[in-house]
Amino acid sequence: MVIKVVVGNTTAQTGNNNSEETEEVRHKGNSLLETLSNYTVIDLETTGTNIYGCDIIELSAVRVRDNQITDKYSTLVCPPTHIPIQIQKLTGITDEMVAGKPTIDDVINDYVAFLGDDILLGHNIARFDVNIIYDVYNDITGKELHNDFVDTYRYARFCHLNTTNLKLSTIAEYYGVVNEQAHRSLSDCIANHYVYQAMKQDFSAPERITSAKKPKKYSPETKAVQEIQYTLKTILESGELTTENVYTIRDWLNEHTEFINKYPFADIDRSIKKVLADGVVDDTEIEYLQQLFADLLDPVTAQEHENESLDIKDKTICLTGEFKFGERTSVGNFLSNFGAIITKNVTQKTDYLIVGDLGSQNWRCGNYGNKIKKALELQQKGKGIEIYNENEFFDKMISRFRKR
Predict the structure, then answer these.
(1) For residue 385, pLDDT beyond 50
(2) Mean pLDDT over residues 11-19, rounded?
(3) Which residues are known catalytic residues?
(4) S-S: 322 plus which of 5, 18, 128, 358, CB 3.0-4.6 Å?
């Protein structure tokens, strides 16, 4: 069975048959834990934090040779959409500033050419920047980005820093690095370079590390999730969901009935059956499905919560992903001090699943892993488990204490 995604006059195929199997896998370079003298620092600003639904608005890189900056690349990028007001406030980049600037199609080849074969360096790039650049470059040129990279967030874990968290701004302050234009990509690149140079003196490599990637083995269900995610992502990126697409997805679901009662297949199946009940797919239904697909690609962000504050005393909490707040163990100990019961796994007794804002490279389903999937399935069964991202959870928790 092959899924054919029809987008205007273009066609993308995914799926498998008896002789061939394909799936959405980024063939990125290796994530390294190394102390380097030559590398290129990368950073970008985007319209959001979802790697599947954001557009680049600024793109920068700084080349380093013998520990010194030797060249710089930076450009504003005109996105196809409005820059959200919260991003404008964070970065200072406005719609007016990017108007008339080159599009990502105009600059991506020059940018990748600037990177060359260098090892890339950046903060949280394993989760964010490298994936976005990889996807954009691949979508526009059909080529892949294979540069190895050093994520300074991961590197910082082995520097034994006396800091409350491992944010770039926190580490910069720790080492006395002043970043006067934080959240502008060139300034962040330069600050990251100096932070890395400072961290090298405190770095202590773990006893056993390897940069070689071990092949991952995925279950049939995980492969099916990756396959349907690729299809939904392709449709959303095209900006055009057609009636033919809807019927194609329905046919694919009919070929994979063994997963139909599991997340995310159950939501897709139920919604498509509802839309196709009268045999007509109108504009309102297209808009409804587009929103559904976006939510399924990033289910944590799509969570809605009515309560303005949280009382965690005697609540069972499970943690997943990597936290800006600190190591997961430290986060658990912090919450335990307020009476929370911390567990390793999601069960029917779990009250809250807290998802670290830095995500995880080990998640097999893009923006979520097994714990999130389990929590979403429990939600579908009517269980009271709530899923929060790190930032919202601590905001609501702190809000409770402020009201006292």
Answers:
(1) yes
(2) 35
(3) 183
(4) 358
Over residues 64-86, the pLDDT tens digits come to 999 999 999 999 999 999 999 98
Q: Which residue has the higher pLDDT, 18 or 115?
A: 115
Confidence of residue 8 (pLDDT cuts 50, 70, 90): very low
Q: What are phi and psi of 236, to 5 degrees?
A: -65, -40
